[in-house]
Amino acid sequence: MSRRQLLRAGGAAAVALPAAGFLAGCSFTQPGTGQPTGSTLDRLKQQGYARIAIANEPPYTQINPDGSVTGAEPDVVAAVLKRMGVPRIEGVVTPYESMIPGLNANRWDIIAAGLFMKQSRCSQISYSEPQIVSTESFAVPAGNPKKLTGIAAVKADPALKIAVLPGGFEDGALKTAGVPASQIVNIPDGRSGIEAVQAGRADAFLLPTLSLDALKTEGIEITGAITDVQQTGSGAGFRQADGALVAAYDEQLKALKGTPEFDQILGKWGFSGEAARGVTRDQLCSVAG
């Protein structure tokens, strides 16, 4: 994609800028090398904002009609960054499978998209401590005619086809469980997953429960939480070279978690602050996949 949609929190309109040109125009790089000068946190404070990768998947991330960025993860990230002296965030909409490569290529500063922790991701980037904890469900035709309750049922019937977002946690969960590629239907976004089930191209759409609740429509049923998927959750994602930034972020995240504001932010989107306080980064990074 040659142009990326940049969306600024706080109500500013969305603008499109070439990613390479945007970075080259930054005044916080070394002449001739393009390498950042000083610490990442110093740069974010000086420029007054951080670029975050988002996916526009409510309730994790959401773009408002006025172009502002919100959702459970961006709202937590914005609150923490303000405590760190960074007053604004700018969202860059990108597919899940592009988030880690884009972060490591310096296209954005932080991933704030509900990119669930698991072993493979935790080996490529550094996560903050958990900010949200979630469950997984299936979107199925009303009445759940195939009686889907978990991934084991999918493996037991080779005729079943499950829609997922490529590169998403659910895609990895199916593959880790040994579900063949022939049973996996790749779709570009949440609405397309629902439409695939409605049209019979997929028997179910696997996604976080709260995301499916936001997409629920007539003729579609959301199953209860799947019990044969490991507990999932996410934190803000950072480059591994930004250890000092992660440590500073974790310090302020811990402080935020001790206030009613944290519970209010998550509660607005249907998440539990207590659940996020009940797990650690190490626990979630141990999830296979």
TrEMBL record:
Secretion signal span: 1-24
Pfam families per the UniProt record, alphabetical: SBP_bac_3 (PF00497)
Keyword Signal: yes
SUPFAM superfamilies tied to this protein: Periplasmic binding protein-like II
Cross-referenced InterPro entries: Ectoine_EhuB (IPR014337), Solute-binding_3/MltF_N (IPR001638)
Keyword Signal recorded: yes
Keywords: Signal
Every Solute-binding protein family 3/N-terminal domain range: 49-273
Species of provenance: Saccharopolyspora ipomoeae
Protein name as annotated: Ectoine/hydroxyectoine ABC transporter substrate-binding protein EhuB
PANTHER family: ARGININE-BINDING EXTRACELLULAR PROTEIN ARTP (PTHR35936:SF17), MEMBRANE-BOUND LYTIC MUREIN TRANSGLYCOSYLASE F (PTHR35936)
